[in-house]
Amino acid sequence: MSENVFEPLRLPGVDGPLAVVDIETTGGSVTRDRITEIGIVEVDAQGVREWSTLINPQMPIPRSIQGLTGISDEMVAEAPLFAQVAKEIVQRLEGKTFIAHNVRFDYGFIRNAFADLGFTLSLDLLCTVKLSRALYPEHKRHGLEAIIQRFGIAADSRHRALADARATYQFLCLAAQDRPAEAVMAAVQVQTRRPSLPPGLDPAILDQLPGGPGVYYFYGENNSLLYVGKSVDIRKRVLSHFTGDRVSAKAMNLCQQIRDIQAAPTTGELSALLLESQEIKQKQPLFNRRLRRLSSLYTLQLEEDEHGVLRPVVVDAREASRSRRMYGLFPSKKKARELLLGVGKTAGLCDHVVVTPAALGNACMSRQLKRCKGLCTGDWSVLHHNTALMDALAEQALKAWPYPGPVVLLERSGEKDSAPYTAFVLDNWCLLHTQKGVGEPDWDELGTTGDEPAVLDRDIYRYLVKVMMKPGKGIRILPLPDSLTPFP
């Protein structure tokens, strides 16, 4: 163990002492790997103190990690266990703002190590990667090596805990001198705003939330479901509920009732969107918008009569003809007819076509009121009326299904084929089947979607149109089941 003392830094935006921390580990998994070294630069009214120690991880250090850090199995064989230095670490961190370069990594390992001892660590955090991005947006790289080179920081032992903690502290000092105090304070305060947590919520829950895409659930007393939400970063989104000014009494009321938070990670944003929609419809949380569980949706289609007049017909969306355009998705036939009434008035359409189907030849009510342009009396041609009707409904038109049949939309959480995936079997904007796994999908199982009728959902349709018209990173669209060659 070692300790040195230097002059302190006053960091704008942080009231109280600081602990600049760096650790070395056996790998990148916070649950599987262990700490091999910890270095702390303490900053308080008494000055700046440096302290470090090797830690016996009680597991072999991979050769690649040994080559990177220079820490070998022999070096840590006689080092103390984490439990033997835990008390001293707590004393050095307690009451201080925990600062690290990529703070979630260092804090996650240390907090997990304390959790194994039955102790919950809860500190205010500051990430110098985020601080660098905020203060130096003109630079693309914000890793510690890039910062060391940019500022000319002396670092004699890279990838050793105390040396990296010292370099991080020197970056803080240089940034505080290089940038106006107001800018530093603003960048710091964006990160260090303390969440205003409800009295019945354990703060430790927030640290356990994942940082990737997925769905989160707020629960109240007696495990009652209050709210379901989704995000590409669950933890960041949940924290946003408790930080900053809340804009409505409803939002404040929700936050004060929360007693527990749970999360369901997904492979990507689309999975999160679809899961959120499904969960809200099925579970009807108290604070979500009330989505009716609709057994049927209705749409409008145009049928040509013996005179060539296009007449709108309200049909069940499941029974709609694929050969004709669908206009709108409505929760009831009444809502569909209300839309027809509205467009009929604005476009000068005939009541005998859009209100009550009837033969032409006699003036309709709208014609008598001088709203109908005269299809019923022969003053307007069939061609003009058909064109006006299609123009009036154009905004409601659903996108045509762009494939000849069912497809698989494959979403992966990473770029490699071995990454976790979610596969969605889709046809005519309907979700037929979902499969989750790692590596290669089970194509035989995906080809057997069961006998469940396909149901067109307004929210799912909206999500799928955006994704399928322009697939993003990590998404592939494949035909089913004959060929697994991607569509052009």
From TrEMBL:
It is an enzyme of class 2 (transferase). InterPro entries: DnaQ, GIY-YIG_endonuc, GIY-YIG_endonuc_sf, GIY-YIG_UvrC_Cho, Ribonucl_H, RNaseH-like_sf, RNaseH_sf. Residues 211-289 form the GIY-YIG domain. It catalyses: DNA(n) + a 2'-deoxyribonucleoside 5'-triphosphate = DNA(n+1) + diphosphate. The keyword Nuclease applies. PANTHER family: DNA POLYMERASE III SUBUNIT EPSILON, EXODEOXYRIBONUCLEASE 10. This is DNA-directed DNA polymerase. It comes from Gilvimarinus algae. The lineage of its organism: Bacteria, Pseudomonadati, Pseudomonadota, Gammaproteobacteria, Cellvibrionales.
